[in-house]
Design goal:
The structure is a single chain. The chain has about 180 residues and is mainly beta. It is about 15% helix and about 60% strand. It is built from one helix and eight strands. The protein has an eight-stranded antiparallel barrel with strand order 1-2-3-4-5-6-7-8. The chain is elongated, with a radius of gyration of 22 Å.
Length: about 180
């Protein structure tokens, strides 16, 4: 699978406390994965985004998730819900003015956390889906959960299955046709 979309992370100065100082950082995300079966897939998701504070300082957020995804049976032949879990490495980068030197310093923190989430693929075609997912992890270094992702996913494996299905059906019809017209 190959996906791209927009996502948001929550950055807070007081982890665990709802506050008007919390920032929702909107950015982009890229997902790559491989389905071992129709139900199980391994995936990697990378996301990034940033904003400028009222003080003029830049703040950036990034994440890399690696894990497994379980696809539940398709609902109404269109919606495929999934559960996912794995590890998430989150990065928070903040520019801040160093009072003693008067220079802007870049402070960076990086944490690896256990993460889990859920989502769904809404199939436009057999190999193209609109995807929405949310991932939660423990709070660390000012990066809070959840992280939301909405985008588009291509499922190249469905092309192969679709081609095989078409060939099988064509061969079956040809066989039936030849038996009837003998």
């Amino acid at each position: 699978m190959l996906g791209y979309g927009t996502e948001t992370n929550v950055v807070t100065t007081q982890p665990g406390v709802p506050s008007s100082a919390n920032e929702h950082v909107v950015g982009q995300g890229l997902t790559l994965g491989y389905g071992f079966t129709r139900q199980w897939a391994a995936y990697i998701n990378a996301g990034w985004g940033g904003f400028q504070t009222t003080g003029g300082n830049r703040t950036g957020v990034g994440s890399v998730d690696i894990g497994a995804r379980y696809h539940a049976p398709t609902v109404f032949r269109v919606i495929t819900p999934f559960l996912q879990g794995g590890l998430s490495s989150r990065t928070l980068s903040r520019d801040r003015l160093e009072a003693s030197t008067g220079r802007v310093e870049d402070g960076m923190s990086w944490r690896t956390l256990a993460a889990f989430g859920f989502g769904a693929n809404v199939h436009v075609t057999r190999s193209l889906a609109l995807t929405g997912m949310s991932t939660w992890g423990a709070m660390s270094g000012g990066i809070a959960s959840p992280r939301l992702h909405v985008g588009v996913t291509l499922l190249p494996g469905a092309w192969r299955r679709g081609t095989v299905d078409l060939v099988d059906r064509a061969m079956s019809r040809l066989s039936t046709f030849s038996r009837v017209h003998r």
